[in-house]
Amino acid sequence: xxxxxxxxxxxxxxxxxxxxxxxxxxxxGLDASSADLLVAQASDILSVLVNQGRRIxxxxxxxxxxxxxxxxxxxxxxxxxxxxxxxxxxxLLEKFKGS
Length: 99
Prior knowledge:
This protein is α+β, with helices and mostly antiparallel strands. Helices cover 53% and strands 25% of the residues. The chain is built from three helices and three strands; from the N terminus they run βααββα. It has helices at residues 14-28, 32-58, 88-97, and strands at 2-8, 63-71, 74-82. Strands 1-3-2 form a three-stranded mixed sheet, with helices on one face. The chain is globular, with a radius of gyration of 14 Å. The two termini are 17 Å apart.
């Protein structure tokens, strides 16, 4: 079972993240068609989030978004944050939960 969390910001290199996700899919033994679909979906979502984050960063806004991609043999969480500050308690809870 592949379980991954990808944290992204406006500085995230989407192609690099997609390549690393593909490597993790292969290492986890995910079949090729599922891996291709997962990487394509994750890449599309990350591209949209990063581009939207860049637009709102120009005007000083904040953005947080989470998406979950799941299927047989995988669960991938995409977490995007731009400009939002988290309290110490929130960061500790995220570390504890494994986000």
